[in-house]
């Protein structure tokens, strides 16, 4: 099923992640741009798992503690992320509710699940769907670069709600935990080395 694909590593070459020049594996620094080069990102699997675990742990306070306290008509109500989404939905702000729901629930959880699955596929030395897994990682990393938007979306929308005079919104402790989730997920994606996906066939020859 899986085709034999020659990797740079199997040809005694290693890619510079900075300028994409192929260096001999004996090199310590890139021949063209002088950046340090590695055959694979150091301790990639362990670092990815550690950051994923951090993100998962931080997601607990991010979801159970209030992310904002809405004050309307002298009624003060602390809201969790999901509680806030439900509140906005009930007020008829369907679009804002959906944007916050995607930015703060769907996308972060999807990123964590995808990276956890990629790690798991390395652990069980999965030999199929290598190209698909590489592409999935590429998109996860691409989305990851825009992760800070998750926080900005929530912050800007809170400001908009305040300007609208509908509500007074104060940030809660979960906002900080959520920022931690986003940062830990970005670092997990950064630590993951997609080239490890292609190493399973190399190991077969040894
Ligand atoms: Zn280079």
The name of the CATH architecture of the largest domain is Up-down Bundle
How many DSSP H or I helices?
A: 7
In what order do the strands lie side by side in the largest sheet? 4-3-5
Round the mean pLDDT to the nearest integer and report it. Answer: 82
Low-confidence stretches: none
Determine the CATH topology of the largest domain: Butyryl-CoA Dehydrogenase, subunit A, domain 3
Q: Rg, please? A: 22 Å
SSE string: EEHEEHHHHEHH
Largest sheet: 3 strands, antiparallel
Which CATH class of the largest domain applies here? Answer: Mainly Alpha
Q: How many DSSP-defined strands? A: 5
Helix content: 55-70%
**What overall geometry do the principal axes of the alpha carbons give?**
elongated
Report how far apart the termini are: 20 Å
What percentage of the residues does DSSP assign to strands (E)?
Answer: 5-15%
Q: Which kinds of small molecule does this entry bind, naming each only once?
A: zinc ion
Number of domains: 2
Helix and strand content put the structural class at mainly alpha
A few lines on this structure:
The protein contains 7 helices and 5 strands; from the N terminus they run ββαββααααβαα. With 206 residues, the protein is mainly alpha-helical. It is elongated, with a radius of gyration of 22 Å.
